Amino acid sequence: MSPNTCWLCKICREEENGISSKLSLEEVLQWSQSFEKLITSKYGPMIYKTYLKTEHSDENIEFWLACEDYKKITSQRKRISVARKLFTSYIEPQAPNEINIDSPARKAILRNIQEPTQSCFDEAQRIIYMHMERDSYPRFLESKFYQKLKHSLQTNDNNSMIN
């Protein structure tokens, strides 16, 4: 299948300048072993986010990834700024990308961001991880999206063996 006709290639080009040519069958097959393998692989989060957009729930992976970046912040000044941004984007009621967490977790974050620490979003991140692992990840593996991606790479692998 040529990159010009592959539906996933078009999505990937729009997302990240054509990562589909760098995506390996081995990596894609590993994603079905565990959610952890998907979310920690090189291209898994981007592909998974593209799938979640079709379910209108990409705020979950965006929040999870933003929390991973947040944990790496060493400057307290920057941590305060990013914590507020995360709160207004994902946590507060009616936030533009509001995530589905329970009220106690929401209230704990509100208390924690007064003096934000590296771990003040950990509970919300854990909840979102569990939502994705239990709900959207199994659907992702069964989806035409993932199945077509695997098939496309298997076909490319077989063609390259023949040539």
Main traits of this protein?
elongated, disordered N terminus, 0% strand, 9 helices, 163 residues, mainly alpha
Oligomer: single chain
Instruction: Compute the number of helices.
Output: 9
Share of helix among residues?
55-70%
User: In angstroms, what is the radius of gyration?
Assistant: 18 Å
Q: What is the strand content?
A: under 5%
Calculate the mean pLDDT score and round it: 87
The total strand number stands at 0
Distance between the termini: 14 Å
Structural class by SSE content: mainly alpha
Order of helices and strands: HHHHHHHHH
What about the largest sheet?
none
Which parts are unreliable, with pLDDT below 50 for 5 consecutive residues or more?
Answer: 1-5
- Large-scale geometry: elongated
Architecture overview:
Helices cover 69% and strands 0% of the residues. It is mainly alpha-helical and 163 residues long. The protein is elongated, with a radius of gyration of 18 Å.
Q: How is this fold's topology laid out?
A:
Blueprint: H1 7-16, H2 25-30, H3 35-40, H4 44-54, H5 58-71, H6 76-91, H7 103-112, H8 122-142, H9 144-162
Helix pairs in contact: 4-5, 5-6, 5-8
In short:
This protein is an all-alpha fold. It has 9 helices and no strands.
